[in-house]
Amino acid sequence: MIPSTTDVSRKITLTADADDRRVARMAAAAIALSLVDAAIPTPLPGVKPGLANIVTLVALRRYGWRVAAWVNLLRVTASSLLLGQLFAPGFFLSLSGAIFSLAALSFTRFLSARWFGLVSWSLIASAAHIAGQLFLARLWLVPHDGLFRLIPVFALAALISGLVNGLIAARLMDSFADAAPRAAKRNSTLPPEGWRGPEKHKKDTMARARILKTTMPVSHAAILRVARGDIAALDVDAIVNAANETLLGGGGVDGAIHRAAGRELLAFCRKLGGCRTGEAKITPGFALPARAIVHTVGPVWQDGRHNEAELLADCYRNSLTLAAQSDIRSIAFPAISTGAYGYPPDEAASIALRSVRETLRDMEQNGNSTIREVTFCCFSAEDEARYRALLEHTK
After folding, report:
1. Could you confirm whether 254 is annotated as catalytic?
2. What value does the mean pLDDT take over residues 271-276?
3. Domains within the chain, CATH numbers bracketed
4. What is the pTM of this model?
5. CA 85, 162, 275, 278: dihedral to nearest 10 degrees?
6. N or C, where is the chain less crowded by C-beta within 10 Å?
7. CB of 294 within 8 A of CB of 239?
8. Given the DSSP bridges, would you call strands 209-212 and 223-229 parallel, antiparallel or unpaired?
9. For 232, which DSSP code?
10. What number of other Cβ atoms are within 10 A of residue 93's Cβ?
């Protein structure tokens, strides 16, 4: 049977999701900068500012290595096509530089965020980019050792372009962080415009988050609960913020918490030097009902084979450990990494419950647990039902 026209069109329809649109926007910016790069006259063909690395750095910082890799691949292919150099030597030189820089940047997640920021990343990327181009040029285009006499020139170019691009990328990230609380204020009705600190809104906290008294017997002292609503409005000792590595605000829960807590939170976070994936840091709650905020950085989902599960479990373990050290008795978690970071919700919820239960039991056995209540605050009814079912199943 031959399918109808309607059936055929339905089968071949492609829908772009948020990640696709994000990659497309950043790739378009990188392509534009590559074209500007190509138009800048320089004494040596290989010595260019590498402006597209600015976009790569921002993509890597905000969305992870996978998005940065796609942006770079699309940038090299499209810009070479527009410049009439597709599959010409210039294309392969650009591709080798991009591959080397991405390979070098993949190791930046192991560097301390306190000492290594975007400028350091940019210097690493620029050095690797030029090293990749020199490697290919030596093997293919200039098969003699005379090329290595130019290494000092290329090294100086890498240093200058790395510094400039890194400073620009760092300024852009600061701009995004400053804009996040304003965006949250425009796009969210919680908390309301009349926000005047925790006491004013403490009474209607329960109206904003419907608490389901579904509990799991983790220990004799601690219980688990499920809530649906605005985590920033919960009346608990501490809430957990699903932050990015800069701790300077972002979208989703991160932006909403920064909006509700006020400008003091951003100023305080600037002094912390960022936070690595899986780790946690604590700040005052400022204008929130909660007296503390535990900031943790969840993993960006790639394919499940890049230690994502262990890193996500670390987020819950380290957050609870830090909260107990600060004499926190009640704490609320969002669904870490399930938003823009793309972690599958079912697997993330299972890891969250298992990690919290195991951590609380370990702390109870060691006699160092102050936590008496853990709330999983969900954004949607679907997430709420997922956590409630898991809690019931593990009773």
Report:
1. yes
2. 89
3. 18-184 (1.10.1760.20), 197-393 (3.40.220.10)
4. 0.52
5. 40
6. N
7. yes
8. antiparallel
9. G
10. 22
